[in-house]
Amino acid sequence: MDGSQTVTLTVVCMVYDKDRVLVQDKITKDIRGVIFPGGHIEEKEPCTDAVVREIFEETGLTIYEPKLCGIKEWFYEEHKRYMVFLYKTDKFSGTLTSSSEGEVFWTTFEELKNLNLIWHMDSMVKVMNTDSITELVLSDDYKDVRFI
């Protein structure tokens, strides 16, 4: 076995301001529900550049000093992996503007629990807010999570 595999690379960012957090009510053909804004990393694009670009495209905000705080990943089909680089920042400027991918809005962490969250959003929040956890791995059936 040569160890090669197909990997899909994406980013999300938890933009926060004191007790508020920015979320997106995603409305694409594949995803419906509340998630942190983000998207796919383009070919030869550094991860940090991708998260800055994606947040601007989906929210109208320019973020600064995004901190990589974890990875979410799962495996599907043979030799295929999906990785989401998890970032957070409280440094941003601009005017909040929704995109065709969904409405963006501020909420609190407490209110977040009551929203229609995408699968495993609560686990991503846990990784992003816990320094001792850096990885979230989903089981083959996507129902169970493992924190590393």
Tell me what you see in this structure.
The protein is of the alpha+beta class and 148 residues long. The chain is 17% helix and 45% strand. It has 3 helices and 11 strands. The protein has helices at residues 47-59, 109-112, 121-128, and strands spanning 6-17, 20-27, 32-35, 38-40, 61-63, 67-76, 80-89, 92-94, 102-108, 135-138, 145-147. The strands form 2 sheets. Strands 1, 2, 3, 4, 6, 7, 9, 10 and 11 form a 9-stranded mixed sheet that branches. A hairpin with a 6-residue loop joins strand 10 (135-138) and strand 11. The chain is globular, with a radius of gyration of 15 Å.
Which key features would you list for this structure?
nine-stranded mixed beta sheet; 148 residues; 45% strand; two-stranded antiparallel ribbon; globular
How would you sum up this structure in a few lines?
This protein has helices at 47-59, 109-112, 121-128; strands at residues 6-17, 20-27, 32-35, 38-40, 61-63, 67-76, 80-89, 92-94, 102-108, 135-138, 145-147.
Low-confidence stretches: none
| SSE run | EEEEHEEEEEHHEE
By DSSP (H or I, 4+ residues per run), the number of helices equals 3
| Overall pLDDT score | 93
Structural class: alpha+beta
Number of strands: 11
Fraction of residues in helix = 10-25%
| Shape designation | globular
- Terminal-residue CA separation: 26 Å
Question: How would you summarize the topology of this molecule?
Answer:
Layout: E1 6-17, E2 20-27, E3 32-35, E4 38-40, H1 47-59, E5 61-63, E6 67-76, E7 80-89, E8 92-94, E9 102-108, H2 109-112, H3 121-128, E10 135-138, E11 145-147
Parallel strand pairs: 1-7, 6-10
Antiparallel strand pairs: 1-2, 1-4, 2-3, 2-9, 5-8, 6-7, 10-11
